[in-house]
Amino acid sequence: MRRIFALSLTLLILWAVLAELNHALSELRVYVFAGSLFVSFAAVTQPWRIGLTTALIGGLICDANSPVRFGTHVLLFAVAHVTLANIRDRVPRDDAIAATVLTLLTNLALFLVFSFTQIHSSPAAPNIWPRLLMDLLCSQIFVAGVTPWFFALQTQAVAMAQPWRGETA
Questions:
Q1: Domain limits at 12?
Q2: How far apart are CA 76 and CA 34, in angstroms?
C-alpha cells in the first residue's frame, strides 16, 4: 500500500509538471503528451498488481482534467501496463537507455492510439495531422529528456516507502 501511495504521489507531480508545461506552450499551440511515464516504471519494476493499480490511478489523474470521455486514459494505461508487464522479462531493468527507449516506444503507441480514438471529434480531421506530428515530436523529446529523472524519482519514492528494519508493513 505504501508503494502505491508513493508512486501515485510521483504521478501527481508529473501531472502537475505536464499541466504547467502545456499551459506555457499553449501560446505556441503545442501539446506535450507523456502518457507512457505514467505506466512504464511501475509496469517494468513493480509487481503486477501494484503496477496495474498505479497505472489505473495515473489514468484517473489524467482523466480528471481532460476533455475526453472519462475512462479513456484509464483504459489506455491499463492496456499499456499489461503489454509492458508481459515483455518486462526481456528488457534490462537497470539500464537507463533501455528504459528510455521502452518509454519512448510506449509513448508513441499511446499517442497514436489516443489520436486515432479522438480524431473523429475534430471538425477538420485531415488538417490536424501536421499539428499532431509536431505534438508527437515535442512529446518524444520531452519524454526522452525526463525519463531518467522521473524513473530516479520513482525509485527513490519506492525506497522511501519501504518499511524500516524491525517495522511490520
A1: 2-161
A2: 13
